[in-house]
């Protein structure tokens, strides 16, 4: 159950409206976000809050999705993005978030951007699990096709 102090502290993350949920993020989620935002840009400034704010605006509602989003938006090129995504060390169901975020970002672009294609192909070549995740995610997006605007359909 939730403690009274947890309910009163609004600045913490969590699903406070769900019974039994806790407002604290897990240690692993915090580490993944830290690796996404700081671990791979030695000698550069750390990421400002802009990427985190952008992730929130795009409804990236979990630490894993925010981490993947930050990697995609802050990488220098698709090779850097691929290496950083692999470097996040996601396992199992966490890896399935990568195609979801990647396709979401691709659909939001004003015009087709091959950056996302190259990242997807690199991931697919690396692992059969990534290939299956992309197949299922694309299948889900195709089911939602009627809800997308013209730009989203073209991308």
Automatic annotation (TrEMBL):
UniProt domain MI: residue ranges: 63-155
Localization annotation: Nucleus
Signal listed as a keyword: no
GO molecular function: RNA binding
Coiled coil, from the record: none
GO CC terms in record: nucleolus
Alphabetical keyword list: Nucleus
GO-annotated biological processes: ribosomal small subunit biogenesis
InterPro entries given in the database record: CWC22_splicing_factor, Initiation_fac_eIF4g_MI
Pfam family, one: MA3
Record's protein name: MI domain-containing protein
């Amino acid at each position: 159950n939730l403690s009274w102090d947890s309910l009163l502290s609004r600045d913490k993350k969590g699903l406070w409206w769900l019974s039994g949920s806790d407002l604290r993020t897990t240690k692993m989620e915090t580490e993944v976000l830290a690796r996404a935002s700081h671990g791979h840009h030695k000698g550069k400034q750390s990421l400002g809050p802009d990427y985190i704010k952008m992730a929130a605006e795009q409804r990236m509602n979990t630490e894993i999705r925010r981490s993947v989003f930050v990697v995609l938006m802050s990488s220098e090129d698709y090779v850097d993005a691929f290496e950083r995504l692999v470097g996040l060390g996601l396992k199992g169901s966490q890896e399935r978030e990568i195609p979801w975020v990647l396709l979401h970002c691709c659909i939001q672009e004003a015009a087709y951007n091959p950056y996302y294609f190259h990242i997807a192909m690199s991931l697919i070549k690396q692992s059969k699990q990534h290939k299956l995740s992309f197949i299922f995610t694309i299948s889900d997006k195709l089911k939602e096709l009627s809800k997308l605007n013209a730009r989203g359909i073209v991308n």
